[in-house]
Specification:
mainly alpha, Serine Threonine Protein Phosphatase 5, Tetratricopeptide repeat, 3 domains, two-stranded antiparallel sheet, 2 strands, nucleus, Enhancer of translation termination 1, transcription
């Protein structure tokens, strides 16, 4: 079962666990496909030490995360680099070469041994200092392999098991690493759809084979919350970036997958038609997804922690003194995206009270309530949600994106519809919405002409 998009990162090739005899160093040597020499290159910033292995690995990983072409080849290259770093690290450790940095940690299960160095010079000037971030990148890269093999469940499971093993080794060495906690949460959120939801059918029940997905999700969210708490306590806001925001998008996709579980779209049928209730599915209380389907807990968690992420991102922008005039700065772009998501979330929640208010006001005037809401209750709830949506959508506006202006205007029209007909409040909101739409329409050669016509006819 596939979600509406690839969750999380990019996705890529296979790795195989190999254990030595008990008396020897246990080693994992990833067997990702060979990468042609010089195939993976990335330009390093002037501040990056070209001899710093972890800095170069970080640059490779960030380049992969940002690119639209998240290919298997690139992840293979990153995994090979992780393998190489560990081999060289332990070869130096075994030799007792003090040129290597970060040598205070002993070899443990889950790391590459120092054998098979080939022609690599372990006594060169390359700096290797292992950290929680290193193990986080290692685990995330391995977990990305699963997205390339969704038709081979056993391989997917193996990839995630190895990814979690790297995370586990890292946590033993760096138990207070915030970077590693964020990485662990991202590995877990990507694992759930591929290994725990995809195999399910409507008839599935909680068992040894199928765990309760809500409990898995709770474990994942707890890791994220721990990372949040530690970063906030240390006032270290560097982790609130595009890469880690992917966790929130992955959670949103997971919840969307659950919402649509078991539904089979019918050809020629409008998914928004009034007959959509016919497609509603009732799951057994014993179904692994039942607890998520029957609760709004996780949607509320998503909104609360997206708002929290946004607050921490704003702190990062303030502390780093990022200029608001630099609209293309990655942090400001991310802030607009988060505000857009939150605004859309508020709009969706406002649909029900808006529908109730409109129905009781214009169509069923004799009825006092609908879906448990009176006309006045629906109006108050709807207005509150729409005002909050507008607040976020104002912050989401991009001077170079007319669609962001139109999204704000359409939210304002929805708010206007919640006021009394021809009231001053309604006219004021409609007027501002019209001004914004005219600007967006002119910038897009008439894309919003029909919306404008409908507004001016009200």
């Amino acid at each position: 079962m596939a979600g509406k998009r690839h969750l999380g990162l990019g996705k890529a090739a296979a790795s195989k666990k190999q254990k030595s005899a008990p008396a020897e160093i246990a080693s994992y040597e990833s067997t990702a496909s060979p990468v042609p020499e010089n195939e993976l290159t990335v330009e390093l910033g002037e501040e990056v030490n070209a001899n710093d292995a972890i800095a170069q690995l970080r640059a490779l990983w960030r380049d992969f995360v940002k690119t639209q072409d998240r290919s298997e080849l690139k992840v293979n290259g990153i995994i090979h680099e992780c393998d190489r770093i560990l081999r060289k690290y332990h070869a130096r450790e075994a030799k007792g070469d003090e040129k290597g940095t970060g040598m205070k940690h002993g070899t443990e299960s889950g790391e590459a041994s120092g054998k098979q160095q080939d022609s690599e010079d372990i006594d060169d000037d390359e700096v290797i200092e292992l950290s929680g971030e290193f193990y986080g990148i290692y685990g995330l890269a391995l977990s990305s392999l699963g997205f390339f093999y969704t038709e081979e469940p056993s391989k997917v499971e193996e990839f995630f098991n190895e990814a979690k093993d790297r995370i586990s080794v890292g946590r033993q060495k760096f138990p207070d690493s915030v970077a590693l906690l964020f990485a662990e949460a991202r590995v877990l959120i990507n694992e759930i759809p591929l290994t725990s939801i995809s195999p399910l059918t409507v008839e599935s029940k909680v068992s040894k084979k199928h765990r309760d997905v809500a409990s898995l999700l709770d474990e994942c969210l707890a890791v994220w919350e721990k990372a949040e708490k530690l970063s906030e306590e240390r006032k270290n806001y560097k982790y609130y970036n595009l890469e880690n925001s992917d966790f929130l998008q992955a959670l949103d996709d997971l919840l969307d997958m659950v919402d649509n579980f078991g539904r089979k779209p019918l050809e020629g049928k409008d998914s928004d038609s009034e007959d959509e209730d016919e497609d509603e599915l009732t799951l057994s209380p014993k179904h692994p997804l039942f607890a998520i389907v029957e609760s709004d807990k996780y949607n509320l968690w998503w909104r609360e922690h997206t708002q929290r992420f946004l607050n921490n991102l704003n702190e990062k922008i303030r502390i780093e003194q990022i200029s608001e005039s630099d609209s293309r700065d990655a942090n400001l772009v991310l802030r607009r995206e988060l505000c857009k998501r939150l605004g859309q979330s508020m709009l969706l929640e406002a649909e029900e009270p808006s529908h109730v208010f409109t129905t009781l006001t214009y169509y069923n005037k004799g009825e006092k309530s609908m879906n448990g809401l009176t006309r006045e209750d629906a109006r108050d709830i709807g207005q509150k949600l729409l005002l909050k949506a507008i607040e976020y959508l104002r912050l989401a506006q991009d001077d170079e994106d007319p669609d962001s202006w139109a999204a704000l205007a359409e939210a304002m029209i929805s708010l206007g519809n919640m006021y009394e007909l021809d009231s001053d409040e309604q006219e004021s909101v409609y007027k501002e919405a019209e001004e914004i739409l005219v600007r967006a329409n002119n910038a897009t050669n008439g894309r919003y002409e029909k919306v404008l016509e409908n507004l001016t006819q009200t």
